């Protein structure tokens, strides 16, 4: 522990023990004086220029100070390359004497400065954050950082502290970045607010003419909207509790986007594959019991089927055979490479035998 330096106006050095004979009015300044012994290294690494430079005999109390009543004042000054806790008091007769407590060396360098945050972002988890920057002077790097969300870190380059990353934790984060420098105590502080992510569910692929159910999480206080630049042919309805129904016309095709909102947003993509094009069924649509007729379609590769095989059957070549008197619906189905199918029908009538 370093002894206090005690000086009078006439520069007579007093015994250190005399300065410890404290009246009640000296109690608070004395506590401050003693506590200064335990100042941190960071406090000691200050620029001398940040404080009043004291010289012996110099009056450093407030301007126009009224000494009536034996009042005291307290401040930190620099002297001969060191910092001192200065405690002065005076009486009706004028300035009395000063007590000084050495609290460490000061330097001739300039204290660092750290500017305000460029932004205080609010974003969702797992979303890349637009970088926050703090302009600095007299800084050489980063000593420590606290209270940044997981996935976010601080870096220093070219007199700028940059905070960037993709937060994976939710909450309000009041961060502190402590730079490295020869002297100074400025720090970078700011706030990052991270909300829970909204999940719209997996993308879907369907064929035109069908409907899909859109689901997302959370389910309360949410909404679905269609992207304004979607192709034509989609209708969005039944948006309730995190879900919605998207219906597509038979001639719809392309990529459709639907936005799920619950504070944060997420997008679901629905790919709609076009249906294959079909031509009309041609051929005679009447036949006789025990006889045949042949149907055809200009689009090859399809499959023929009979709705009532007990009345008429049809083979892969389109030949219809009359089995019983009546009507049967004949269907021609074509499936494309996206597994989307189109069909066309024709009713075939089976008459009684032409030769009873």
In brief, what are we looking at here?
The chain is mainly β and 356 residues long. The protein has helices at residues 27-35, 41-44; strands spanning 5-8, 46-47, 52-53, 72-79, 82-91, 94-107, 113-114, 122-124, 129-137, 141-146, 152-157, 160-165, 171-180, 188-195, 204-207, 211-215, 223-226, 234-240, 243-248, 254-262, 264-273, 282-283, 286-288, 292-296, 303-306, 312-314, 319-322, 326-335, 341-351.
Strand content: over 45%
End-to-end separation: 132 Å
Strand tally is 29
Percent of residues in helices? under 10%
Summarize the biggest pleated sheet. 6 strands, mixed
Taking all Cα atoms into account, the compactness measure Rg is: 44 Å
Total number of domains: 4
Helical segment count: 2
Low-pLDDT parts are: 1-44
Coarse shape: rod-shaped
* Mean pLDDT over the full residue set: 81
- Helix/strand-derived category reads mainly beta
Characterization of the model:
By secondary structure, the chain is mostly beta strands. Strands 1, 2, 3, 4, 5 and 6 form a six-stranded mixed sheet that branches. Strands 7-9-12-11 form a four-stranded antiparallel sheet, with no helix packed on it. It has two helices and 29 strands. The chain has helices at residues 27-35, 41-44; strands at 5-8, 46-47, 52-53, 72-79, 82-91, 94-107, 113-114, 122-124, 129-137, 141-146, 152-157, 160-165, 171-180, 188-195, 204-207, 211-215, 223-226, 234-240, 243-248, 254-262, 264-273, 282-283, 286-288, 292-296, 303-306, 312-314, 319-322, 326-335, 341-351. A hairpin with a 4-residue loop joins strand 26 and strand 27.
